[in-house]
Sequence to fold (527 residues):
Amino acid sequence: MTKEIPAKKAVKKVATKKVISRPAKKATAKKTTTVKKSVPKKINTKTQTIESILELIRRTSTEVPDDVAKTLMKARSQEAQNTTASYAMGIIKDNIDLAKFKSQPLCQDTGTVIFFVYHPPGFFQNNFKELIKKAVVKATEKGYLRQNSVHSLTGANAGTNLGEGHPSIHFYEHNKKDVEIKLVLKGGGCENVSTQYSLPDTALGAGRDLAGVRKVVIDAVYKAQGKGCGPGALGVCIGGDRADSAYNAKKQLLRKLDDKNSIPDLAKLEEDIVKTCNELGIGPMGFGGKTTLLSCKMTHANRVPASFFVSISYMCWAFRRQGVVLDAKKNTIKNWLY
Amino acid sequence: MKHLTYPFSPEAVRELKVGDMVLISGKLFTGRDAVHKYLHEGNKPPVDLKNQIIYHCGPVTMKDKKTGKWTVTAAGPTTSIREEPYQWEVIRDHGIVGVIGKGGMGQRTLDACKEYGCVYFHAIGGAAQVLAEKIKSVDGLYLEEFGLPEAIWELTIEDFPVVVTMDSHGNSLHQEVENSSKEALKNLI
Fold:
């Protein structure tokens, strides 16, 4: 089943190749010769942008990125056979294959829809927000997203995934001419076990240092048990005020699971936390077993002397994260980031 | 692998033990936060839940524009512990014999399972496609006003894969794992 590549993906690959070959061609041939394919002369870039964002949502909702799949398959091979843990990991694998094949959501909780948009200077954020919203409505109609956004005062579900504060969109200016969009879909189960500690924590004997940070992070994984749809992955922020700390922890989920922290102390701590949490024996789904945590990614932010927050964003195994680079002129998907 | 087939009964679920991997065939009713709150407030359920199984799930559903028929395209379990204040009451008052969800439930539910003959089945969280494949038809939609994920969906299922994590004899895998991981935690931090 894994070998059956959906038609859409095949198209994408061709598109990527063209982009890669372009600079080489430029050196030898005239620009016009490269624009040979049957693209209409006048492109409605707004419509194209919506289409590109829609495709980003589709792929994010229906596929786990390669780095996550690899980590999960390694974890699967480590569970003892004929246990409920290996049974759970087997179903997880089947689900990843089936969701991709059917192009349907990995998990019915398609989560809080969180966009991170990186754009060149002079970019019209409000206009882009509207295009994102249109794509979100379309994705909901197509069933890539569940009707998942509820009014917090009235309980009303508009059925569109639009509403106060949703989707969550964050803009960053960068010095490239292309627009990059990253998307995380974060389900409620794992969001509910995400947490924040204030150090010192007397009950845990956790002080205001990295040893204290280690204690509270491991405690959070213990407290989550199987409720966050483990094996999970963590984003952690040390410091910041309560709000920024939580946000920065969540942003760590944009890192690939197999990357290495550039701060040696944090790299060491990340590794230690994963190893230690996997000795808790909580296992997949909390059934007991060897893999409780897939990864831990940490960052830091300055704090005021009086505060020391440690924020932990727990992501479920159905780690939905993707990103695209949009072509600066056509707004088509130039390449995929994960 | 064990099989549990419709019609369900307290006697049949009493046979099941913690750790059993079970394939369920027959009928399910979804019910999550809004439904449990509704029942807790004393409202009559729109369908008779006696000897039925409640599935903590808010599915992704699509309506065929021409035929008006519903299909479920994603249907994994939601976190069960949120229903802990209500579940024991639903077991007692409405005679359900099974609860499917994820993450496990607490002492009150465990006690009710023992007293009235009910089992907590753990489905694999996040496995919405594998589980949706086991849904063969959508037979009813009730309390639609709660929004589609929160409504009651009546579903026919075949070989729906679950693990018994709380049985009707007072055993809870969740309690066991929590206790053993607590011991481990003491030595690790």
Notes: Residues 1-31 of chain A have pLDDT under 50 and may be disordered.
